[in-house]
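Long-time lurker. I teach an intro course on protein structure, and each term I like to show students one example going from raw sequence to a predicted 3D structure in token notation. This year I'd like something fresh instead of my usual example. Would anyone be willing to generate the tokens for the chain below so I can use it in lecture? Attribution to the forum is fine with me.
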Amino acid sequence: MAPEETDPSGAFDDLVVEPLPEAPGLQVRGRGPMTPAWARASMAAVLASPRFEAGVNVLLDLSAMDFTGVVARDMGIISRQERSILDGDALPGRVAVLVEEDLPYGLSRMFEALSERADGPIYRVVRSRADALAWFAQG
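-- Reply from a regular --
Happy to contribute to a lecture. Here you go:
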């Protein structure tokens, strides 16, 4: 596996973009508090990665993130940010958002609903890597 890349802005040293080991694609992982700024930096890091190309699948692993201070309003902010970042030709294929605990799962499902696009969903919230890989394989 190639070396990992970190947030190009330098604001989040806990944000890593690397190849997905199980299948073609990228994975993003981090730790620490989940904030709209972290979410924005994570997608910006994917798009800035030299490994990124339009249509690539992305596993956004939030299983080590702390959702303690997250409120529903944050999910609206994050979904609006994602729309502004992802408007254009260089869109990822599918983005699986991996969360394992109930509160982050529920909040992330809210983000998923707010982020639906007219041309179909690019986000799916999952509880396991296996679920993410299965969704990617459905293509």
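Some talking points for your students: The longest strand covers residues 16-19. The radius of gyration is 14 Å.
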